[in-house]
Design goal:
- The protein is an alpha/beta fold.
- Helices cover 42% and strands 15% of the residues.
- The strands form four sheets. Strands 2-8-7-6-5-3-4 form a seven-stranded mixed sheet, with helices on both faces.
- The chain is globular.
Length: 386
Amino acid sequence: MKHILKEIIYLDHNATTPIESAVAASMKELMEEEFGNPSSAYLLGKRAKERMDQARGQVACLLGCEQDEVIFTSGGSESNNTVLKGIVDLRKPTGFHIITSAVEHPAIINPALFLMELGVQVTFLPVDRFGRVNPDDVRKALRANTSLISIMLANNETGTLEPLKEVAAIGRDMGVPVHTDAAQAVGKLPLDVHDMGVDFLTVAGHKLYAPKGIGALFIKKGSMLTPLIHGASQEMDKRAGTENTLLAVGLGTACRVARDRINEDVLQSRALRDRLETLLFEGLEGLVLNGHPQERLPNTLNISVPGIEGAKILEGIPSLMASTGAACHDRSVKLSHVLSAMGVAPEEGMGTLRLTVGRSNTLEQIERAAELIINRVKALRAGTRR
C-alpha cells in the first residue's frame, strides 16, 4: 500500500483525509494497553474516563468552547441528525419550522426532508451564483414557530464560506438557535464557536486526519435537545451507548495537532491551491471557477471544463485522485444539487473537478497534477486518446 501511495497524487481531502501519524500513535497505545469502560468505577474504567476527558478537552480547545459543551458521536451525519431531530418534538412535529439552505450536505437535507414527511415545516433558502446564502433571506424566512436555523460553514464541493456570523446574529436577535455543519471547516480554518455565535456545531473526524466513524457535536450550555439515541447516561445524558474511547482519543489528538499547526496548514494549503489554480487557468482556455473566489476554504478548488465530462478527464489520469460534480448517463447530465442551486449550466457543470489539497501534498505534486490535467483536457479537445 505504501508503494501505491507514492505513485498517486491525492487531491480529494474534502472527501476524507489520511490518519495523522500522531493520531495513529495515540490509538495504538490505547489498543495495546487500555480496554476499560469509562463508566466503570474501578481503575481501568477511571483510566479510560481520563482519556475520554482529555480527548473532549482537546476538541473543546480547538472549537473555543468548554469541555462539557462537547459530546462525541459516530460522525458528522449523526451530529447533524441529533440537532435537526432533537430540536423537534416528534410527538407534535407540525408546530416546528426549520430554516436551512439548498446547498447543505445530504446529512442535513435528507433529515430535513424526513422531518417534512412528519409534518415539520422546512424552508430551503436559495443561494447566489457563488453558493452563498443572503442573510436577509434568513430574516425574511423567520416565523413565529421557527425552532432552528441550520446553515453550513463551508461547502464541501466548492469550499464557499457562508456568512455564518451574520446568520447567527439574526438568530440570536430573534431567539432562534443556530446550528452549523462545520465538517469541512474544522481543522482547515481557525474557529471559535462563541465568536461565530452558534448554538450547535458539527465536527467530522475523518475530515481532519482522524479515523472514520468518530465525530463531535458542540452544544452550547443551556441548549435543549432530545437525544437521538436513548439508553444509559453516557455523554452527559445526550448520547447513549458505551463510549468509543479508542476513536475519541484519535479525534482528540487530531484536534490537538490541528490547533498546533492551523496557521501553517492554512498558509500551505492556500499556496498549493493557488498555484494549482494559476497553472490550470494559464494552461487551459475557457475554465470556469465554481464558488466564491475569495470567501472559500484555503484548500479547495472547484473548476469546470465546459463540454467535457469530468469523469472522462479523471479516467485518463489514473494516478490523480479527485472528485467530479456531475454524473452523465445516456446523454443527460445530472449536476450535484450544489451546482444546480448555484445556477451552473449543465454544459459547464458536466466538466466539474473538485481538487482539494492537504498536508501531505507537495509543490511537485501540484505542478504534476496541473500538467496531467492540462494534457488530458487538450487531448480530449483534440479528439485524441492519451
